[in-house]
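pls design
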């Protein structure tokens, strides 16, 4: 089933987030920290894409979240994972707390829950979360049609809009 493949690639984001968290102090990052922000929400999957409240997000159909929480970003960089476009994000202390809280909620809400990541005006990713994330780094896998540098620029621009 096509959705099973999407779920596997989206769960990869969560796995990469865990590995990035454990390596955060050892890896050298960029010398500049322009900041920025992403928006996060927890939603449920849905089946009726004809319903305006059921939207497609990177291969997943989810209910349109009623509200997003702002997670402040210390830095965002273009990365690559397995030949796929990705964005590496390092959260501020407050941003990491928001990320942890929402991944904990998504994990508790069960298999139909998705963590929705909004960057700029667009919901970019909806991932299942098997367990709460800790740490301050995550790698966001992008679809092949998304430009990683444009996504990084949108994240940095969100911090400038304040």
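designed seq:
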């Amino acid at each position: 089933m096509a959705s099973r493949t999407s779920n596997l690639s989206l769960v990869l984001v969560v796995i990469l987030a865990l590995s990035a968290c454990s390596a955060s102090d050892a890896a050298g990052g960029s010398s500049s920290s322009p900041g920025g922000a992403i928006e996060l929400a927890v939603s449920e999957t849905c089946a009726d894409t004809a319903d305006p409240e059921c939207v497609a997000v990177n291969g997943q159909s989810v209910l349109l979240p009623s509200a997003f929480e702002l997670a402040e970003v210390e830095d965002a960089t273009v990365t690559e994972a397995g030949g796929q476009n990705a964005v590496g994000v390092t959260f501020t202390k407050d941003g990491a707390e928001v990320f942890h809280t929402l991944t904990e909620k998504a994990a508790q809400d069960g298999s139909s829950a998705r963590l929705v990541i909004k960057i700029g005006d667009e919901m970019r990713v909806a991932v299942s979360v098997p367990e709460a994330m800790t740490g301050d780094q995550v790698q966001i896998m992008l679809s092949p049609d998304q430009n990683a540098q444009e996504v990084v620029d949108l994240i940095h621009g969100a911090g400038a809009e304040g």
